[in-house]
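Troubleshooting log. The previous structure file for this entry was overwritten by mistake, so regenerating from the original sequence record. Sequence copied from the archived sheet and checked twice against the printout by T.R.
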Amino acid sequence: MRRNNYPYQPLNQHPAPSGPAGHDALEAENERAAEELQQKIGALKSLTIDIGNEVRYQDKLLRGIDDDMDRTGGFLGNTMTRVVRLAKQGGGSKQMCYMFLFVLFVFVLLWLTLKFK
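Regenerated output below.
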C-alpha cells in the first residue's frame, strides 16, 4: 500500500506467531529490509558522488568565466582610456563623431541583418 506517493511499504502489522517459525519469518523480513536499505544507500552514495563531480565542473566553468570577465574588464578599461585621450587631443571631436557614426552604422547593419534573416 502506498501513501503520499512515497515508495514506503509499512511493515506487516499482524502479530507474528511465536516460536522459531515466527522468529525465522521476522529474521527473513529484516534481512530483506536490510538489503533494500543497502541498495538505497548505494544509490544515494552514487548520486552524491555525481553531484560532487558536477559541482567541481561548474566551479571550474565559473572560475574560467570570472577570469575572462577580468580580462575583458581590463581590455575595456584600456580602450576607454585611449578614447578619452583621443577626445582630449586637438581635433578629437571630429574623430569621435566619425567613430560614433561608424559604430552606429555597424549596429544598424547588424540589426537589419538579424531582423531580416
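The CA atoms of residues 30 and 36 lie 10 Å apart. Archived copy saved in two places this time.
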